[in-house]
Amino acid sequence: MRVRKKPDLRIDIPSYPHDYVEMPPETKKLIHEANKTPNDIPYIDEGSPSSPKVHFQVGSPGFTQNQYEFRTSTPEVKYISDPTEIQDTKSEQSSPVLRQPFRKTSTSVPADLQDYGQSAISDNNNIPEHHQSTASGFSDGDNTQDENNALSDEERSKTPLRSPRRKLPRRSRSEFSMDDEDYSPSNSVTSVNSLASLLKEKLQSIPQKMRKKPTDYKLRAFVLLMFLAVAFFIGFAYTLYQQKALTKAYFESVQFNEGKRLIRIFNRDDIEILRASLAIGVQNKKKSFPCLPEHRRLDGSICLEWQEDLRFYLKCLPHDPGVDNTTCYSVHWKALRNDIAPMDCFDWSETKVHWYGGGQSANLTWPLDSGSIEFTPFITGDMQKNQFGNVLTRYLINSKGAAIIVDEETPLYLAVNNRNKQICVKAQFDDFAFANQLTEFPELKYNICTSLDMKSLHSSIHSHSRAPLWDGLKPADMQTLESLISEPVWQIAPRFKHELQAETISKYTEDVIDLGFLKQGHVLVNEFWQNEIGDFTVDTSRFKTLNTTVDKLHRRGFKVAFTIQPFISTESGNFAETVQKRLLITERNGDRKIPALTRFKSVDSAGVLDATDQRAHAWIYDKLQIVMDEYHIDSFFFDLGTAYDMPHYYRCEKRLINPDQYKTAFVKAFEKSLNIIGVSSAVSLPRPPIFVSLPPFESSWEALRSVIPTMLTYGVNGYPFIMPGAVGGDIYWPGSEQFLPSAKGSLDSNATNATQENGIDLPEKELYIRWLQMATFLPVMKFTHLPSKYNDERVLEMAKNLTILRQKLITPLLLKYKREALEEGLPLVRPLWLGAGGEASLLVRDEFTIGDEIVVAPVLFPNQTTREVYLPAGLWQDGIDGSLRKGNRWMHEYRVPIHRVAYFIRKPDDMRF
Q1: What's the angle, vertex CA 829, arms to CA 857 and CA 868, rounded to 5?
Q2: Contact of 814 with 485, CB cutoff 8 Å
Q3: Which residues, by range, are in coiled-coil regions (predicted)?
Q4: Which DSSP category does 539 fall into?
Q5: Are 595 and 576 in contact (CB under 8 A)?
Q6: pLDDT computed for residue 745 by the predictor
Q7: The pairing of beta strand 254-257 with beta strand 310-316
Q8: DSSP letter, residue 682
C-alpha cells in the first residue's frame, strides 16, 4: 500500500515581516483532521533515512512579453529532489515559497508539470523587482470556473488550482485586515478548498488586531469618562433638587431649608443680605415636623418642631409699606428640655457684610467682625475687666441693610467667631446674669429687619416719629440739653475724698474764669461730696462754707451737679436704716432681712438700694430733696456701676430679667422728678436731656484711639446724646482703684511737681493736645485738667483757637442736628457710612462726621504730623488751608501739624464754578 509522508505545515506565508505568526501545534492537528479523507495516502515514517526527500515549491510564475511583465495568479509548484537546491531557489526567488519535503516513491511527477515549474522559475527571475509580488493571492472565486471546466478530470487533479487576481484599486489599509468590506475570496492567502485557509487568515489578523487595541482603550476611556460625567450631573441635579425641595420660600423674601436649618433673606433686588444657620448643636439629620394643633399660633406664624429638642416659630410682622420700606420677621425658638440651648449664627463670609452695634469691648473694634470673643453673657461691665463695656443694646446691623434685634427677655449670650466668620446668639440660663428664669426652658426670641439700605434701616429702627423724644420735655429740660452741648463740663474728681473741699471747687472755677475764653458750664463734683457713699448728705467737715461756694459759682455763671450712686457703704450712717426698713437688695437664697453685699470702686463693702421698691424711691428722693433745698444744687449725675457691681445672688422686690435692668429701673424712677444730666451706664435710651457717658479712659494713646470707635458704636446703638470722658484721660478708670491704698490715703510726696495737679500726673502734653483737638468736635467737652496747667503759651493759644472754632462752627451744627436726634433718633456724631455710601467708609474707625456736613480726622498716634484721610463723595473744603477737595477718595500723607486738626466742610457741588 502506498503511503505518504505527513506534510510539514510550517509554510512560508507571504506577509509583512512583523505580521508573521507561527502556527501552533494544536492548529496543525486541527487542519490535518479537517483535510483527512478515506482516500488519503498514509504518511510514511518521517524520520526514515532511506527515503529520498523531495521538496515542492509554491510560487507565482511570470513571463515577459514585449517588455511588459505579467504575473499569473496561479501558484507555481516545483518539485525539488535535492534539498540543497532549496537555498539556490531562495536566492533566485524574490517571493517566498511553500516547501514540503517528500520521500521518493513510485509516484511520478508529470513531465509537463516539471517543465512548467522550471519555466516558471526561469521566467520569474526575469521579472523586474518592482513588479514582483510580495504575497501570493489565492482565490476561490467564480472567475476560475470556466478555466477549470476546460480541463479533464485527470488534468484537473494534476494541475494546481488557479484563481485570477482581481484588479482592485490599491488601498492604504493592510491586505490582512479582517474588516467586512475588505474580506473576500479574491484576497485570501489560503487554499480554496480547506478549512485551514480560514484559520490561517484569522491567525494572520491577530497582529493587526493587536495594533488596534490602543485605539480601543482610548474609546473605552472616553466612554468611561462620559459615563462618569453623566453620573456626576445626575447626582448634582438630584442634590440640587433635594436642596430646592427642602428649601421653602416664606413671605416673598425669606428662604428656609428645614433639613439644614439655613435661613436666607433677600432684599427687593434679590441680593442676599443675611444668612444664618439656626439651631446649632441639634443633630443635623434630625427631621422637623409640623407642630401639633395645640402648639400652633393664630397670628400666621409658621410652626415647626424637632421632636424632644426645639420648637420654631417664624412670622412676618405687620408694617405699613407706605410709611417706610422696613420689613421685620420674628424668630422664636423654644427649648423642650433643660440641656438644649437655642443658638443661631449669622454668617458674614458668604454675604460679604460687616456688622456693627451691640456693644464695645477690649476685644471688639469697629466693625464688630474685626474682633473675636467667646460666648459671654451680654451684660454691661468694665472694658478692662469684662467682655463688654458700660453701654449695650441688643441690636446688630450689617452693611447690606439687615438688622437683628434680640428680645430683652432672652437670656442672651453672644460670641463673635472671627475664624468661622460668624456672630452667634444663644439663649442660656446661668446662676448670675440670667438666674431669674422667666420660662421653664431657655427661649431665644429676636426680630430680623430689612430695608433698602443700611442708612434707611437704621433711621427706621431708631426713629421716634411716633413717640418723639421731645414729647413731654419741659423748657428747663430743653435748656439743660442745649447748655450741655454749648458749654463745657468741669469734672472735679480727686482720687481721695479729703482732697475735695469747698476751697478746691472755688479755686478750680477761678482758674476757669482766668482762662478768659471758655464758658462756665457745669461743675460736676464726684461722690466725695459725701462723707461715705450712701449718706446723701453733704460732709460738713470739709464743706463748711458750701452754701457760700455754690452761690459764688451761680453768680459766676456756673451750674453745680453732684454725683450719686445707688450703693450704700456699710460705714454709712444710712446703712443700718436701710437694712431696718428693708430697702436693700437681698440674697436670692437667704433671709430677706439680710442684705446682699457687693464692692463698688474704692468701697470694699456696700449694699444696693432696691430700685424696684417704691419705698426706696421715696426714701432716696427725700434725701436728695433736702440737699437741693439747702445747697441749691442744679442737677445730678447717676453713677450706676455695671451689671458686675450687683451682688452675685441678687434678689429684688420685683423679679429682674437680668442685672442690667436694675439701672433702667433706677433711672426711670427719677428721670421726671430730678434734673439728671448724665448716666454712667445704660442698656436702654434714657429720657433727654440725660446724656449717656462713655466709659472712663486712662491717659494713654491707646485709650485715645478707643474713643472714636466706642462713641460710634454707642451712636449706632441708638444713643444720640453721648458724653465723652475728660480731655487727656480720666483720673479714675476701670482697674485704677487697685492702685489706691484706701479712700483715706494721703497726697503723694512729689505733689508740688509742675507736671502734677493735686497729686496726679498731668497727661503727656502732645497727648493732651491731640485729645483736645478731637474733643472740640464731640457733643460734650469735659475737662478735668485745664490747659493752663502746662504753663505753655502754645497750648493756651491752641486751646483758644479750638474754643473759637467750636463756638462759631461746631456748636451751631450740633444744635441743628439736636432736633434731628430728638425726632429720628440719629446720633449727633455719626460713622461715615451713615452720612454717605461707599465700601471704604465701612472700615474707617478713626474718623467721624457731625451730621453729614463735617468730616473730622484727628491724629491719634504720637510724633505724627501726617495721616491717611478718607473723604466721602461730594465736594469738601479743607479746614486747614481752605482749599476744595474732591470726595470719594483717599488722601495719603495728608499733613496735619501739631497745632492743627484735620476737618472738612461739605460744600454745594456747584461751588467749584
Answers
A1: 15
A2: yes
A3: none
A4: -
A5: no
A6: 38
A7: unpaired
A8: B
CA–CA gap between residue 405 and residue 848 (Å, rounded): 25
CA–CA separation, 892 and 870 (whole Å):
9
DSSP 318: P
Residues in the chain: 913
Dig out the grid coordinates for 279 from the structure.
439651631
Strand segments (E) across 407-537: 412-417, 422-427, 443-450, 489-492, 522-525
Residue type (1 letter), 173: R
Q: What is the dihedral of CA 551, 555, 556, 562, to 10 degrees?
A: 40
719 three-class SS: coil
Cross-strand pairs, 449: 328, 403
Answer for the pair 560, 651: CB distance below 8 angstroms, yes or no.
no
Q: Is the dihedral of CA 883, 885, 891, 896 positive or negative?
A: positive
Residue type, 220: R
Q: Is the pLDDT of residue 890 over 50?
A: yes
The set of cell numbers assigned to 311 is 420648637
**Residue 544, CA atoms < 13 Å, CB-side half-sphere:** 1
Whose CA is closest to 820, among 835, 807, 809?
Answer: 835
If you average pLDDT over residues 799-810, what whole number do you get?
95
Per-residue pLDDT tens digits for 260-288: 888 999 988 888 999 999 988 777 667 88
- What confidence score (pLDDT) does residue 83 get? 45
Q: Which of 611, 624, 618 is nearest to 676 (CA)?
A: 624
Of the candidates 840, 842, 860, the one whose C-alpha atom is nearest the C-alpha of residue 902 is 860
Q: Is the CB of residue 500 less than 8 Å from the CB of residue 542?
A: yes
Contact 750, 868 (CB under 8 A): no
Per DSSP bridges, beta strands 373-377 and 412-417 are antiparallel
Low-confidence winner among 331-335, 362-366, 774-778 (lowest mean pLDDT): 362-366
- Decide: residue 826, CB within 10 A, 0-12 exposed, 13-18 middle, 19+ buried: buried
Structure-block grid coordinates of residue 643: 451689671
**In the predicted structure, residue 788 carries a pLDDT above the cut 80:** yes
Q: Of 661-665, 797-801, 841-845, 889-893, where does mean pLDDT reach its minimum?
A: 841-845
> Three-class SS of residue 251?
coil
**Edge-to-edge strand order for the sheet containing 76-80?**
76-80, 53-59, 98-103
| End-to-end Cα spacing for the chain | 134
Give the residue ranges of DSSP H helices in 562-648.
573-580, 614-631
Main-chain dihedrals φ then ψ at residue 335, nearest 5 degrees: -70, 145
C-alpha cell at 226: 462620559
Contact 164, 148 (CB under 8 A): no
Q: Does a cis peptide bond (omega within 30 degrees of 0) precede residue 659?
A: no
Sequence-ordered list of residues with C-beta below 8 angstroms from that of 618, at least 6 positions apart, any chain: none
Q: Which amino acid is it at 777? A: F
* Cα–Cα distances in angstroms (integers) from residue 795 to residues 510, 515, 788, 862, in the given order: 19, 12, 8, 16
Kind of pairing between the strands at 489-492 and 522-525: parallel
Give CA–CA dist 559/474, Å, rounded.
Answer: 18
User: What type of residue is 416?
Assistant: V
Closest by CA position to 259, among listed 306, 310, 295? 306
Distance of alpha carbon 482 from alpha carbon 405, whole angstroms: 31
Q: Please report the pLDDT score of residue 354 as a whole number.
A: 92
Distances (CA, A) of 504 to 205, 858, 901: 119, 33, 33
Percentage with pLDDT > 90 across the chain: 45
The CA distance from 405 to 508, in Å, is 45
Describe the crossing of helices 111-125 and 85-92 by its angle, rounded to 10 degrees. 50
Give dist(CA 96, CA 91) in Å, integer.
10
CA of residue 26 relative to chain centroid, distance: 74
Tell me, rounded to whole angstroms, the distance of Cα 356 from its chain centroid.
Answer: 15
Q: What is the pLDDT of residue 248?
A: 58
Across 671-791, the runs of DSSP E, i.e. the strands, are 676-679, 691-693, 722-723, 756-757, 760-761, 782-783
Q: Return the beta strands (E) in 617-744 as ranges.
A: 635-638, 650-651, 676-679, 691-693, 722-723
* Distance, CA of 583 to CA of 573 (rounded, Å): 14
